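Now for a chain:

_____
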Amino acid sequence: MTSIKDSLASDMKQAMRDKDIVRKDTLRMLRAAIQRREVDERIELDEAQVLAVIEKLVKQARDSISQFEEATGATVEII
């Protein structure tokens, strides 16, 4: 079974090959957040810790979207 980090790396490579800029940038952001936490804490994250980082980023994105919608009255369609 492949780890989440390995899966993110291979998905990012495939997004580069497919020239899918949004997907590539999203995966790159996820990998950077994981690596940043590993460097800050000087540890290698296990699967549960990687999922916690991803969940935190998803929550931040949802909060940003809801704040934008409240401020502008517009809606954001999430693909």
The two ends are 28 Å apart (CA to CA). The CA atoms of residues 18 and 24 lie 9 Å apart.
